[in-house]
Amino acid sequence: MLTFSAPGWSSGPLWVASSFVQRWRGLRGSPPDAGLVLRARSVHGIGLRRPLHVVFVDRFGVVLDAGRLEPGGVVACRRARWAVELSTAIELPPIGQRLAVVPIVGPCPAFSFSAPHR
Known about the structure:
Elements (H helix, E strand, L loop, with lengths): L1 E5 L2 E2 L4 E3 L2 H6 L10 E3 L3 E3 L7 E6 L5 E7 L4 E3 L5 E5 L13 E4 L15
Parallel strand pairs: 3-4
Antiparallel strand pairs: 1-2, 1-10, 4-9, 5-8, 6-7, 6-9
């Protein structure tokens, strides 16, 4: 787990999607406050039950684009290296803001990728 942060902003804890299945599943079936970071230039909302915020970040950690993903929708950013899926309760960082990656060490929340899909 990790978190992205900048002065005055934090993503909160994020799971890292490292396999195809984890990237495809995204946050479907996760708790409302869960977040996810994945190496992607686009994110789909197929199967979503609630909207999400999506932040696209380049390889240097600079926010290229950020917005809202509605259920059934698709958002994309061609120059992105990473996509961060967040709860809509979390404010979006400003475009152009450089984010720092902070590893989380210690106990992790109960949600995991091994949980059955609902």
